[in-house]
Amino acid sequence: MSVKIHGKDYITVDERVQEFHKKYKNGSIQTKLVSFENGVVVIKAYIYPDSSDELRMFTGYAYEEIGSSQINKTSALENAETSAVGRGLGFLNIGLGGSIASADEVQNAVHQQKVGVVTDEQKERYQEYLKHKIFDRKRNETNKW
After folding, report:
1. pLDDT (tens digit per residue) in 100-118
2. Per-residue pLDDT tens for 15-37?
3. pLDDT in tens, 39-60
4. Which of 43, 63, 66, 106 ranks highest by number of CB atoms within 10 Å?
5. From its phi and psi, is residue 93 left (phi > 0), alpha (psi between -120 and 50) or beta?
6. Angle 31-33-35 from CA coordinates, rounded to 5°
7. What string of DSSP letters covers 17-82?
């Protein structure tokens, strides 16, 4: 079942993996940690539709930054691995809903775009907070409580 994001259908990695195993009984999915530096994890996935034919291979890369999202605080490696597998399966034409990117990947990208976006309401609340903090600090300085 696809997931609709911004009016476009995307397939989850889980569904792509299930479809792969149904279609390619002798297939293999392998992953490799390419690098882990400065809090960034890079994973490469290797997708073999037929394990006996190593020349027919599809790959997918993904990276995640540790702490860049709630899930990446504890699971950046796993998240990158899932995305890399999803992309590799997409290149094999598994679970395409019109995009190589999986639903998981697109949802993560949409979330990343929202991170750091401050609404006007949040700005106003913060300004009010600062006013009270400054007032409290001045009051404490003059009254020496």
Report:
1. 555 455 456 555 555 555 5
2. 999 999 999 999 999 999 999 99
3. 999 999 999 999 999 999 999 9
4. 43
5. left
6. 150
7. HHHHHHH-TT-EEEEEEEEEETTEEEEEEEEESSTT-TTS-EEEEEEEETTSSTTHHHHHHHHHHH
